[in-house]
Write a structure and sequence with these properties.
The protein is of the alpha+beta class. The chain is built from three helices and eleven strands. The strands form three sheets. It has a four-stranded antiparallel β-sheet, with no helix packed on it. Strands 3-2-5-6 form a four-stranded antiparallel β-sheet, with no helix packed on it. Strands 9-11-10 form a three-stranded antiparallel β-sheet.
Length: 224
């Protein structure tokens, strides 16, 4: 007599159902942005009876922060600028406002140059990405290129004292002055602080900064 033992599907343990997946966390909204004025592309200039290039001073204002760009030989072509602003955007109703104005410095009287104003808010994702604005009159036709990126996460960067001193020494040479080493170091520290880099630690030969952007890295690559 043959004996057969069979296993039925009903005897197998049923797998426990997986718990329902929770709702994914919404992405964290950026609360600090970096606006960098990158370059100016000039396609036409006219200095009137004086001829030649334009002697210009440009003013960039971002949410009350003011920086100037001086180009005493502005001609047709692309001119690098590289001015950076950091803007807090604490609420959904916060705005990022860029105001651009310029003046042509003439011996007799200064001529205002065409500017523009851009305002970015939540419906525009605060302008994140590559942007441009332009101006044109009888003196100049130009396009200003700038970019806006999220800058929420501060970074730390260590810079040697030698790098800071090299930067300060170059500035002294450019200004044609004799400055003490303490003054040269102060110029370098001030340059980093203007770009929102905070000194968090210092030793005899190294300084650690915390902030946003790439200025400490660029200084190290140039003077290290």
């Amino acid at each position: 007599m043959n004996c057969c033992c069979c296993c039925c599907d009903s005897d197998r343990a049923e797998p426990e159902p997986e718990p329902p997946a929770g709702d994914p966390e919404p992405p964290r909204r950026c609360t600090k942005y970096r606006l960098t004025v990158e370059s100016m592309r000039v396609t036409q200039i006219d200095d009137g009876f004086l001829g030649g290039d334009l002697e210009t001073t440009w003013t960039f204002t971002v949410n009350g922060q003011v920086k100037t760009y001086v180009n005493e030989n502005l001609d047709v072509g692309t001119h690098a600028i590289g001015e950076t602003f950091f803007v807090d955007v604490p609420a959904e109703t916060s705005k990022i406002e860029l105001v651009v104005s310029g003046v042509e410095d003439d011996p007799v009287f200064d001529d205002p140059l065409p500017g523009f104003t851009h305002v970015w808010g939540q419906p525009d994702n605060w302008g994140v990405g590559a942007q441009s604005g332009s101006g044109s009159d009888s003196n100049i036709t130009y396009t200003l290129n700038y970019s806006i990126t999220c800058a929420d996460d501060a970074a730390t960067f260590s810079v040697s004292r030698d790098v800071l001193m090299e930067y300060g020494e170059e500035k002294a040479e450019q200004r044609g002055v004799k400055a003490s080493r303490e003054t040269q170091l102060s110029w370098a520290m001030s340059r980093l602080q203007r770009d929102d880099w905070e000194l968090v630690q210092a030793t005899d030969d190294r300084y650690v900064f915390k902030g946003y952007g790439t200025l400490p890295k660029r200084l190290t690559e140039k003077y290290g």
